[in-house]
Design goal:
Blueprint (H helix, E strand, L loop, with lengths): L7 E4 L15 H6 L1 H6 L4 E4 L27 H13 L3 E6 L3 E3 L3 H7 L3 H4 L4 E3 L19 E3 L5 E4 L6 E3 L5 H15 L5 E4 L29 H12 L8 E5 L5 H8 L8 E3 L21 H18 L4 E2 L9 H5 L6 H13 L4 E5 L20 H12 L4 H11 L35 H7 L2 H14 L1 H4 L2 E5 L6 E8 L2 E8 L5 E4 L9 E4 L10 E4 L4 E5 L12
Parallel strand pairs: 1-2, 1-13, 2-3, 3-9, 9-10, 10-11, 12-13
Antiparallel strand pairs: 4-8, 5-7, 6-7, 14-15, 15-16, 16-20, 17-19, 18-20
Helix pairs in contact: 6-7, 8-9, 11-15, 12-13
Length: 558
């Protein structure tokens, strides 16, 4: 598949469809729904991990990279799933979590048993001379990033949960193991790979404290060795497939670094995920806070990444939602008054940009954050840790819960809502995480009378029909407008103006003369019309207008 004109659908298998009555989704549940997936028009499915795991971090703590967790099915189920999708022209993308392993993994267990070969698979360090931990780094899940290594005087590095031990990529044997894992799945027909927090693998050999008052992430993120290791991994595995599609999840990264990771001349990755646009509702850059999103910052970041990646020959993975983010519709839209309009506006903003769009399961029917009322409703270790930390620093339980409820990863992990039944058509028993509004929001209802699902199908089809969307250049427009995200796409004389009102009130924006009276390619209100030199947009309205001229002068950036 060509990743430029593709759309990728993300499935969190644990929450997609339970075929056994266990309350946990599985591979056969996905097999049951392949016709629905195919009906969306997507080209590939990214599956979150379904490998054996103690599930301390919902499968991102892997204990065996080359097997299927029994709760998810068997290898035969996986092979059947790959074949069923292939029959419908859909490829498979697997999640490769290669920055760290579970402490249950055989490698870590052999290291604990004293095997020096496997001890060099991890970052093991003694305390500093003053008895303090090897570095002052903080785990991304809270607390120190070091834990005691068995009954030795050493500590092991874990940038995430203590059960997720960071791998030492300086060791050639670790890099060879990574290629071996990728090749195992390539041999089973897998053509796509998503690499979890892959820009953290280039840590220095000598690990140092972060200077006082600085962000410790600078000490281990986007190191120069990441490029070297990715090129080596590509050459030894997926880079041997002309039609392989790869994406790297980049933590706390930069445009410059991501140009390097995704410029095809560097032979590293097809595209990258970055997250800066999803931090515009973080007060002082801190996740566990409450604040309205900053539209000016959102527009600036989208423009910087679209223009910067284009200038450097890089490629963006485009998304609002995934398994690690609360539902974007709750963050950037109005789920009470304008759920349909909010959902379709957000989809328009992303799908018509330069890059490859990702649709997270349930997004295409306008699923929202669950109406949970207690921290006990949440399963995720990060959310529970954050709640306890907020309370310990003086927040009331009510204040702490309000914050966690707005940002928790489990908000996106509630079961896919197939119908209005008690368990949303996800399972016949008690689900591992409960849905809360499936009576109003479900696939069955959307298929029958909804506007969101048909709109997604049209956006996905347009990317394949029009080169201006899949291959066109990006130009920012109306960057100072207080309500509207706007941009122009251009390809071989065809020009497309995209307007997205991010507000729950009417607004207007001046449009260039070349688009006055132009053809409305798509809009999320009935009978949209661009009007004259002013486009009058209704709450959360999205509009894409083709230029009236076959060729036109470049639109001036505002």
């Amino acid at each position: 598949m060509s990743f430029q004109d593709s759309v990728i659908y993300q499935i969190y298998p644990k929450s997609f469809r339970d075929s056994t009555g266990s309350g946990v989704g599985d591979l056969r549940g996905v097999i049951e729904k392949v016709d629905y997936i195919a009906s969306l028009g997507v080209d590939c499915i990214w599956f979150n991990p379904f490998f054996p795991s103690p599930q301390r971090d919902n499968g991102y703590d892997i204990s065996d990279y080359c097997a299927i967790d029994p709760s998810m099915g068997t290898m035969e189920d996986f092979d059947e799933l790959v074949a069923a999708l292939a029959e419908r022209g859909i490829d498979v993308m697997l999640d490769m979590v290669l920055n760290h392993t579970s402490t249950d993994h055989e490698w870590f267990q052999r290291a604990l048993a004293g095997d020096p070969v496997y001890q060099d698979y991890y970052y093991l360090r003694p305390a500093q001379a003053d008895g303090s931990l090897p570095t002052n780094w903080v785990s991304k899940f809270g607390g120190p990033a070091w834990a005691p290594f068995g009954d030795t005087d050493l500590y092991y590095l874990h940038l995430f949960d203590p059960t997720q031990a960071d791998l030492n990529w300086h060791n050639p044997a670790v890099r060879a193991e990574a290629a071996k894992i990728v090749n195992f799945w390539r041999a089973r027909g897998v053509k796509g790979f998503r690499f979890d927090v892959i820009n953290l693998i280039g840590k220095d050999e000598i690990l140092r404290d972060a200077p006082a008052g600085t962000d410790d992430r600078r000490m281990y993120t986007d190191g120069p060795d990441v490029h070297t290791y990715l090129r080596e991994l590509a050459a030894a595995s997926f880079g041997q497939d002309p039609d392989a599609v790869t994406v790297g999840e980049m933590s706390s990264t930069s445009v410059e670094a991501c140009v390097g990771y995704s410029n095809p001349d560097n032979a590293e990755l097809s595209m990258v995920f970055s997250f800066h646009h999803l931090k515009v509702d973080y007060a002082d850059g801190q996740k566990w806070t409450l604040m309205p999103f900053d539209l000016a910052a959102l527009k600036r970041i989208i423009d910087q990444w679209a223009a910067g990646m284009q200038a450097g020959g890089g490629w963006n993975a485009l998304f609002w939602n995934n398994h690690d983010q609360p539902r974007a519709i709750n963050r950037f839209g109005d789920v009470e008054r304008f759920r349909t309009e909010s959902a379709t506006m957000l989809a328009t903003a992303i799908h018509l940009l330069r890059g490859t769009p990702y649709v997270y399961m349930g997004e295409e029917i306008g699923m929202t954050d669950p109406a949970y009322t207690s921290i006990a409703d949440y399963v995720d270790v990060e959310a529970r840790n954050a709640f306890n930390e907020l309370v310990s620093t003086g927040k009331s339980p009510e204040e702490a819960f309000a914050i966690v409820h707005s940002k928790a990863r489990d908000n996106a992990r509630t079961p896919m809502q197939w119908d209005a039944s008690a368990q949303a058509g996800f399972t016949d028993s008690a689900p591992w995480l409960r849905p809360t509004n499936q009576e109003a929001i479900n696939v069955e209802r959307e298929e029958r009378e909804g506007r969101i699902l048909p709109y997604y199908r049209r956006l996905i089809a347009l990317r394949k029909e029009l080169a201006v969307i899949s291959a066109g250049r990006y130009e920012g427009y109306g960057l100072d407008h207080p309500d509207v995200l706007a941009y122009v796409r251009e390809h071989e004389g065809t020009r497309l103006l995209v307007l997205c009102n991010f507000r729950g009130h009417d607004t207007s924006i001046e449009i260039p003369n070349e688009f006055v009276g132009g053809e409305v390619l798509i809009g999320n209100y009935p009978a949209p019309a661009p009007g004259g030199t002013l486009a009058d947009l209704r709450p959360y309205e999205a509009l894409a207008v083709l230029s009236t001229a076959a060729t036109a002068a470049p639109t001036t950036r505002h």
